[in-house]
Amino acid sequence: MIRLPKENISLAIVQSKPLSMVSMMSEEEDYFVKTPQKTISDILETRKVERCYVRCTIASIDNDMGWYYISCKVCGTKLDMLHNNVHPGRTYELDIRCMLYCTKCKMLNPKLKLRY
After folding, report:
1. Which domain holds residue 65?
2. Tens-digit pLDDT profile for residues 50-95
């Protein structure tokens, strides 16, 4: 039992405050509910610089090239590997070297850049 001091202290009875509502959503779920959603076409059509977060489900991972792809250093386009060293419109002697082609720059064996 706690004993209060014998001084004249007045006490007031105050109604209790209602309990605050607790969200049943995790912080991540709450974030995505409050964040405006856009379609890919909305993002492509936007005229202003924005930060986007992409929420997706990964269907599969292609492990043949690891976590990167080979792109053209000039334009960033993924390079095509030419089979049997065949280049559209040209003839070459069969060579064991790998030949890559940028369809955008129309360059054979351009400078490479690995992209993720």
Report:
1. 27-115
2. 877 777 787 777 677 667 888 999 999 999 888 654 555 565 554 5
Written as one letter, the residue type at 112 is L
Residue 104 domain-assigned (yes or no)? yes
Question: Using CA atoms, how far apart are residues 82 and 110, in angstroms rounded to an integer?
Answer: 13
DSSP 47: -
Q: Please answer whether residues 107 and 75 qualify as being in contact, where contact means their C-beta atoms are separated by less than 8 angstroms.
A: no
Task: Say how far apart CA 60 and CA 97 lie, in whole Å.
Answer: 31
Alpha-carbon gap, residue 78 to 115, rounded angstroms:
9
pLDDT, tens only, 17-43: 666 666 677 887 777 777 778 887 888
pTM score, two decimals? 0.36
